Amino acid sequence: MMALVQRVRRAQVVVDGATVGKIEQGLLVLVCAEQGDTEAQGDKLLAKLLKLRIFSDAEGKMNRSVQDLDGAGQHGGLLIVSQFTLAADTSGGNRPSFKGAAAPDEGRRLYDYFVAQARTVHPIVQTGIFAADMQVELVNDGPVTIPMRVASAV
Questions:
Q1: Which of 62, 101, 105, 130 would you call most buried, defined as having the most Cβ atoms within 10 angstroms of its Cβ?
Q2: Are 103 and 132 in contact (CB under 8 A)?
Q3: What is the pLDDT of residue 151?
Q4: Catalytic member of 84, 114, 126, 127
Q5: Average pLDDT value over all residues in the chain
Q6: Residue 152 — pLDDT band, cuts 50, 70, 90?
Q7: pTM (2 decimals)?
Q8: How far is CA 102 from CA 5, 31, 35, 105, 125, in A?
Q9: CA-CA distance, 43 to 98, in Å (whole number)?
Q10: Residue 84 bears catalytic tag
């Protein structure tokens, strides 16, 4: 399972002109399930994501996580958006192949699982809509953009 994580001042997802998910300071998380991924990988990715220290402390060093933005337990938002195109393979030419992405039904199942788990452990979780044509608007803070991948235990 993989994610592209962006530290944001604010972000939102718009579908058909309506805002379906919106956060202030926090993380925009573009998530992709790959073939063979499991819930265990989703759990591991979520745990790493919540502990990722990419927010600045009082000295300006990246020492805080989305669970502790101010050093006193203030939570930032998570905006979780499905994005199968993270699995793009461009080695064969100019048209990307997405054969490494999980099949749509499995991708949806793993995305829904990931979001449900996030909601059980983090108080501010918003989402896009799986497989929708989404417009994602964000103000990247830094900019800080970090790719994350959790491989299977096999």
A1: 101
A2: no
A3: 82
A4: 84
A5: 96
A6: low
A7: 0.96
A8: 20, 12, 4, 8, 23
A9: 23
A10: yes
With CA atoms as reference, report the closest residue to 76 among 59, 58, 51: 51
* Tokens representing residue 23 in the block: 């956060």
Q: What is the pLDDT of residue 153?
A: 53
Catalytic residue among 67, 83, 126, 127: 83
Residue 22 confidence (pLDDT) above 60: yes
Tokens encoding 123: 């108080």
36-90 residue pLDDT tens: 999 999 999 999 999 999 999 999 999 999 999 998 999 999 999 999 999 999 9
Lookup: tokens for 44: 């591991």
Active-site hit among 19, 74, 85, 135: 85
Site of tokens 């235990």: 153
Cα dist from 116 to 108, 121, 146, whole Å: 12, 9, 23
The 10 Å Cβ neighbour count of residue 35 is 12
